[in-house]
């Protein structure tokens, strides 16, 4: 029952977030053109998207005993931020990039097997 509740909550959270946000990057295994980026046959259930308010949302569902890491790189591939998550099953994070210099940045969400990466432009 708890797993069903968590799955429904995750689906609603992600669906509602997509309705309020800009273009997401998915990791559900299909390939699409445009701004969306995907990981084929992924074990990583995650989404990254640049919101209309200028923040970046990162949502993911992790498996028990799994560690998921969110990384932010600048345009020169230098690591700016790294957050590791090992406890919660459903994670929703929002990052405010307004204090960063203008330019291109890359968000990565990784687990032991897969990487989801999306380019974000700060203007």
Low-confidence stretches: 4-40
**Overall 3D form:** globular
CATH architecture: Sandwich
CATH fold group = Immunoglobulin-like
Q: In angstroms, what is the radius of gyration?
A: 14 Å
Query: What is the chain-wise order of helices and strands?
Result: HEEEEEEEE
Number of domain modules: 1
Distance between the termini: 45 Å
Helix proportion range: 10-25%
Strand order, main sheet: write it out: 1-2-3-6
What does the average pLDDT come to?
Answer: 76
β content, as a range? 35-45%
Question: How many beta strands in the DSSP annotation?
Answer: 8
Task: Kindly provide the name of the CATH class.
Answer: Mainly Beta
How would you describe this structure to a colleague?
The protein is an alpha+beta fold and 123 residues long. The protein has one domain (2-122): Immunoglobulin-like (Sandwich), CATH 2.60.40.3080. 15% of the residues lie in helices and 43% in strands. It contains 1 helix and 8 strands, in the order αββββββββ. The radius of gyration is 14 Å and the shape is globular. Mean pLDDT is 76; it is low at 4-40.
Task: Explain the layout of strands and helices.
Elements lengths: L1 H19 L3 E3 L18 E6 L4 E7 L6 E7 L4 E7 L4 E7 L6 E8 L4 E8 L1
Antiparallel strand pairs: 1-2, 2-3, 3-6, 4-5, 4-7, 7-8
Question: Care to give the gist of this entry?
Answer:
The chain has a single domain, classed as Immunoglobulin-like (Sandwich), CATH 2.60.40.
């Amino acid at each position: 029952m708890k797993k069903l509740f968590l799955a429904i909550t995750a689906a609603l959270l992600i669906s509602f977030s997509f309705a309020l946000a800009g273009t997401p990057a998915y990791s559900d295994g299909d390939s699409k053109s445009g701004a969306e980026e995907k990981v084929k046959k992924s074990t990583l259930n995650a989404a990254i998207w640049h919101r209309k308010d200028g923040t970046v949302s990162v949502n993911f569902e992790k498996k028990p005993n799994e560690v998921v890491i969110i990384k932010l790189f600048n345009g020169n591939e230098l690591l700016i931020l790294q957050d590791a998550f090992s406890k919660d099953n459903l994670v929703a994070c929002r990052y405010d990039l307004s204090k960063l210099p203008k330019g291109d940045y890359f968000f990565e969400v990784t687990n032991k097997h897969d990487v989801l990466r999306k380019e974000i432009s700060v203007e």
